[in-house]
Amino acid sequence: MRKFSFLALLLTCSVFAQSQVQIGLFGGISNYVGDMTDKPYTNSKGAFGVTVGYQILSRVNLRAGFTFAKVSGADSLAKKEDVRLRNLSFQSNISEFSAVAEINTFNMDYKIWSPYIFGGLAVFHFDPYTYDQQNNKVYLKPLGTEGQGISGYQKPYALTQLALPFGGGIKYNVSDKVRIALEVGLRKLFTDYLDDVSGNYADPNDLLTYRGQQSVDLSYREDELPFGDPFYPPKGETRGSPKYKDYYYFTGLHLVYTLGGDGSSALRGGRNKRYGCPTVF
Fold first, then answer.
1. CA distance 184 to 268
2. Which residues pair with 173 in a beta bridge?
3. What average pLDDT does range 248-275 have in this prediction?
4. pLDDT band at 38, cuts 50/70/90?
């Protein structure tokens, strides 16, 4: 019984001696992958966030964070002429809360740097909008640009949804308490309407009847171009591709400050025995 108690004490001390609370700031750029992009890092916008982490093992952290970002896309930047002629565009602010597990390749109490990966779950809110010909800001979901919400069409999409965050980076020990990381994090979504484009053109008469003239105007915008087709496409013609869901991703620097623990690291040759646990040889 004493041996079991001693081993349990060693295990408990081992876990808590390595546990540290970490607060962090993230800053970088945000991008999206969808129907209005054909190459990465197009139309980059800003992303900023705060994080709280907890080191549960020498190479494993749990991390929660809130990030505010913006994403955008525009057919005018596409390489393909038929996509440029579609002439759609969007922007959206994104508010995200995430919780992930982070695994370091090396124990950073004894190494000054380490690659790492992470994965988890997130909840995010978005609300796509565009600008009309008079440069007025118009939110797209209420317009049901592909007939969403009209009988015979798809249901409206939700503006708050789940996502799967995953990615990785490289960390560096600046000091005993401060670490900095270069990180890339992708978000796999369960919606194809981050950009308000997914399927086929609706019947313009349905849009006019149930959503109004603005819905017709902003669901088909080739007629705004000097040499664009002035005639609205027939119902069912391809507007987007529902085959793949949208993504958004962040790239930037994550600055982390350690609150708990004794602050020792690879810069000081390892962790001190702060918690009064038994020494084992």
1. 29
2. 179
3. 70
4. confident
- Identify whether the C-beta of residue 193 lies closer than 8 Å to the C-beta of residue 240: no
If you search the block for the tokens 């600046």, which residue do you land on? Answer: 174
Enter the tokens of residue 169. Answer: 């980076």
d(CA 56, CA 106): 15
Backbone angles phi, psi at 5, to 5 degrees: -65, -40
Q: Which two tokens stand for residue 60?
A: 């494993």
The whole-number pLDDT of residue 13 equals 47
Backbone angles phi, psi at 214, to 5 degrees: -60, -35
Across the range 160-178, mean pLDDT stands at 97
Task: Give yes or no for a contact between 141 and 131, defined as CB atoms under 8 angstroms apart.
Answer: no
Tokens of 250: 């962040």
DSSP one-letter string for 134-163: T--EEESGGGTTT-TTSTTSPPPPPSEEEE
Q: Nearest to residue 95, comparing CAs of 163, 197, 190?
A: 163
What tokens were used for 195?
């950009």
What residues contact residue 237 under an 8 Å CB cut-off, 6+ apart?
A: 200, 201
CA–CA separation, 90 vs 249, rounded Å?
Answer: 16
Largest CA distance in the chain: 86
Q: What residue segments make up the domains of the chain, in order of their start? A: 2-130+154-193+245-268
- Give the separation between CA 182 and CA 172, rounded to whole angstroms: 9
Is 142's pLDDT higher than 50?
yes
Q: List, in order, residues 6 or more apart from 235 with CB less than 8 Å away.
A: 200, 201, 202, 203, 206
3-state secondary structure (DSSP) of residue 55:
strand
> Residue 248 CB: number of other CB atoms within 10 A?
25
Q: For domain 2-130+154-193+245-268, is the CATH number 3.40.50.880?
A: no
Beta-carbon contacts of residue 234 (< 8 Å; ≥ 6 apart)? 201
Q: What is the pTM of this model?
A: 0.86
Q: For residues 137 and 258, what is the distance between their CA atoms, to the nearest angstrom?
A: 43
